[in-house]
Design goal:
membrane, Perm_prefix_1, transmembrane, transmembrane helix
Length: about 290
């Protein structure tokens, strides 16, 4: 193995930025070539000197794990394990739900399990966007509004908080995409988007990380697509024999999908506008700091 091949193995799937990989690779290459020259001067052949220089640095996988852990606080292996396992559990829980429904076993917990696993998968993946603990706390706050929407839809959380029977459905209407199956939610589409925009701005003020700040929109789209996949699978296999407390037959679900696709389009548009706006703001802040310095 030559030095370049060794370095390629070290930085493969390291999750480091392009600049970080370039800087670290240059530094390591300098040390490796220096060590190689030392061994050549001691009488080794070029191949022997290369082998000894590489051996002195250690196993490339171990170095990659150490570099990623120092950068993220978590090893690349652990991050990948979280992502892969939660994704497997998402599809496994969906498949298990379909099998159980075939045997007439179905409840809201079975419907909610895939949602929980896709949330873990999304949070694990988002860890790759940041190395700061502040950003990670911001990430943990992102699913809260959607969690309230699901809990209100499935468990009736806070619905009776104002005394009227099932009178308070704000979280369900704004942050649970299944509400599109019942008419009247179109008026909430922009309102929900505006609330997510406010959440995005708050996260940006705290973290200064544009990608972390835009996670509310990413999660909104993720939950909407996931809802379509989960309930679409049930209707595909069982048709109108499938029943749930949060939907009302295939025709209603299919009509709701049109609104869900519109919602995805609106959220993508708002996300793009905010990305461009926050990028401009960040450049202005950076420029003003340079001028002040």
């Amino acid at each position: 193995m030559d030095i370049q091949s060794y370095l390629d193995q070290v930085f493969k799937k390291s999750f480091l930025s392009k600049r970080e990989r370039s800087d670290l690779a240059e530094e390591m290459a300098t040390h490796l070539h220096s060590s190689k020259e030392h061994h050549i001067n001691e009488g080794c052949t070029e191949e022997q000197a290369t082998t000894k220089a590489i051996a002195s640095f250690g196993d490339p996988i171990s170095i990659r794990t150490k570099l990623t852990q120092e950068t993220y606080g978590l090893s690349s292996k652990l991050i990948l394990q979280f992502i892969i396992m939660s994704l497997i559990l998402y599809f496994s829980s969906l498949f298990a739900g379909l099998v159980l429904h075939y045997y007439d076993v179905h409840n809201r917990v079975i419907e909610l399990l895939p949602v929980a696993f896709i949330t873990i998968c999304a949070l694990s993946s988002a860890l790759l966007l940041t190395r700061k603990n502040t950003d990670r706390w911001c990430l943990l706050s992102v699913p809260i509004l959607f969690g309230l929407g699901y809990l209100q839809a499935y468990l009736g959380l806070f619905k009776n908080m104002f005394g009227g029977l099932d009178s308070f459905t704000l979280f369900e209407n704004l942050f649970f995409s299944g509400a599109y199956d019942f008419s009247g939610r179109n008026s909430f589409m922009l309102i929900g988007g505006l609330i997510l925009a406010v959440q995005t701005l708050i996260l940006f003020v705290i973290s200064k990380n544009i990608y972390i700040s835009l996670m509310p929109f990413a999660f909104s789209i993720l939950y909407t697509v996931s809802h379509m996949v989960i309930f679409g699978s049930y209707y595909l296999f069982f048709g109108d024999h499938f029943s749930s407390s949060v939907t009302n037959g295939y025709n209603v679900f299919a009509a709701g999908n049109i609104q869900r696709l519109s919602d995805i389009g609106v959220k993508l548009g708002m996300c793009l506008i905010l990305f461009l706006t926050l990028s401009s703001v960040k450049k202005l802040i950076f420029k003003s700091k340079l001028q002040a310095g």
